[in-house]
Amino acid sequence: MAEIVYLFGAGINRGVQDWDGLRPPLATDFFLQALKHHRIADDHYLAVVQSVFDYIKQYWKLSVDDLKHVPFDLEECYTLLQLQSAEAKRNGDHDSYVRLLEIAYRLTIMFAEYLAELEVFASGHGAFRALGLILYKEKPTIITFNYDTLLESVIESASGVTATVPESYRGRPPEHGDVPDGELPYSHYGWNRPLAYGVQFDEVQLQRAGITALVPGTRFYSHPENQMYDPPLLKLHGSLNWFVYTGVRRYQMLDSHEKTKAGSTLLYRGHWWFNEPADVGGEIVEPIIITPVLHKDIDDNSIMRELWTRARHELSECRRLVVGGYSFPPTDFHTRRLFLEAFVEKAPDEVIVINPDTSVIGLVKKLCHFDKPVLACRDLREFISTNTVGVTPDLTDFWPQRTRLEGRDERCQ
């Protein structure tokens, strides 16, 4: 429990960019960004995801070339897919149901694939790197609606590399196929992701350099040095490194009688390539994320139910609230309900809003019953200049210097 709560939306990431100037997307500009990506825009990749673009062409009359220049709302697309697939299921139209699910799945993998490639650039943006330093030092509760792991990346960097390494660890697979107890709490960074999320997973990838090592969650979390962090980092729409085993094998040649892990959850750094689903040990895993649809099925997933309950509790006790890059869209009433219920008895003492859209200020005040002046910051750099935790970060952007446009601003948008 922390008296300080940070709540972040997609806008907080907008200063991050790769060496081609591409940024983490908002709901309306995903294709504007992704179709400029050298790999996703390749003809071979587009052929693999042709069903997605055929669907958009059918209902919105927009071609691939149009989507390179015209904003397109992913929420509309996902919502129509959701409604149509539900109708096909009710009507017993199996072929349509499967086709619609495949379109939604390919779109989701494309989205995940694009986002995953941006993590390496998070620490290259000075203000975002500074945010990581502030979050690591303040240790607030963090609530985010972002699927990406950019925040985790800069918090890790702020925590520094772990100086001591277990004697048994050499970056290689264990000789007898099992991770020694002494290696279970070891993380390459001082801040260990699996301990931060406020929920436990059935299987955990250890956060260390070298060969990937997976251990049962019961064993990982029961180690006396692996106490869950409090306050937590709560990802209310899921995360690209949270997965569930599907029970579907990638290769039919694998022993069909071998037991699958269907339904088990996994914390794992996913890898996507050419719009193929991620797999672990030959079994396909899918990310645990709530795609941007009008009707979000939060109550259908036990992890999500637990996270939203915890978020309401954390908000209700917070005294200082920082809302960054989130505009409380009317279609996302779950979040408005979260605020209305969390602050029904007691408003926070201080509210800070990071957003170039000043209309958000009044909405935040209304939702948390706040009747005092709000500190409004136009962008992340302006917020960093107000920090009071003794952090004096370097705001220099490391990249991309060669493609930066003249006069490009750094606002949360």
Can you put this structure into words, describing what you see?
With 413 residues, this protein is an alpha/beta fold. The chain folds into 3 domains: 1-21 and 120-237 and 290-413, no CATH class; 30-117, no CATH class; 244-287, no CATH class. Helix content is 33%, strand content 13%. It has helices spanning 30-34, 43-48, 50-60, 64-67, 74-90, 94-116, 126-138, 150-159, 217-222, 302-317, 333-342, 359-367, 380-384; strands at residues 4-8, 141-144, 203-205, 214-216, 233-235, 238-249, 265-267, 279-280, 283-289, 320-324, 350-354, 375-377. Strands 5-2-1-10-11-12 form a 6-stranded parallel beta sheet. The longest helix has 23 residues, at 94-116. The chain is globular, with a radius of gyration of 22 Å. The model is unreliable at 401-413 (pLDDT under 50).
Structural class: alpha/beta
Give the % helix: 25-40%
Distance between the termini: 30 Å
The radius of gyration is: 22 Å
Number of discrete helical segments: 13
Gross morphology: globular
Mean pLDDT: 90
Task: Please provide the count of β strands.
Answer: 12
**Beta-sheet strand percentage?**
5-15%
Low-pLDDT regions = 401-413
| Number of individual domains | 3
Kindly report the spatial arrangement of strands forming the biggest sheet. Answer: 5-2-1-10-11-12
How many strands, which pairing sense, and closed or not: the largest β-sheet?
6 strands, parallel
Series of H and E elements: EHHHHHHHEHEEHEEEEEHEHEHEH
